[in-house]
Amino acid sequence: MADSNEMTINLVVLGRTQTGKSAAGNSLLGSSDFKSHRSPSSVTTCCSLGRSCRISGIIRKNGCELALRVQVLDTPSYPHSDLSKDQVRDTVRSALAHHFGEEGLHLALLVLRADLPLCPDERDDTIQFIQELLGPTWKDFTAVLLTHADKAEEAGFSEEAYLHSASSTLSSLLSSVQHKYIFLDNQKSIIKEERAIVLRKLLNFIRQNNYQVLLLKHSKE
User: Fold this and answer.
1) Which of 32, 94, 107, 192 makes a 20 to 30 Å CA pair with 49?
2) Could you tell me which residue ranges the AIG1-type G domain spans (predicted)?
3) pTM
């Protein structure tokens, strides 16, 4: 909390190359802080922190409206085209401790593409990676962000139909994080109203977790 009339939420985006991590981070911030474009190699090679302006009309607590600030840590993808798993893990772990070591992390957002299938090996590698970063309580502090939801909609899938026909691999992942998921329409995510909807959903996840934060201290192995 910056003051009694303001709340700051701390988020980190994690995911594979070309899932739209950086674009999702920009959508949450309402800015273009993070470099994001199509590329034959991984675009993000280091962690960077973005901060939003004060956002009003999103959250009320104890009957009072609070201004909201969002902090998003963008991270290199895993697997990465140029960095090893250890390099990515150590880079992200160090950045989490540096930026959120005192205030704590509210949510890690695992970014997946809604228009691509999730394979078992990919899920298992991703879960292991997040466990190494966040520790044994990772499920309480992780939500899934399904990007490119507009492409799934173009294919005739509503959110409900998409989840009904989802593979057991994706279904088990969503179940493991207590069904904390959000669909992100890449065509509408820059619209103020769409951003407000996503932020309210994130705040609801944080509220369900009693506003707890995950404290991440850097430890050398």
Assistant:
1) 192
2) 6-221
3) 0.90
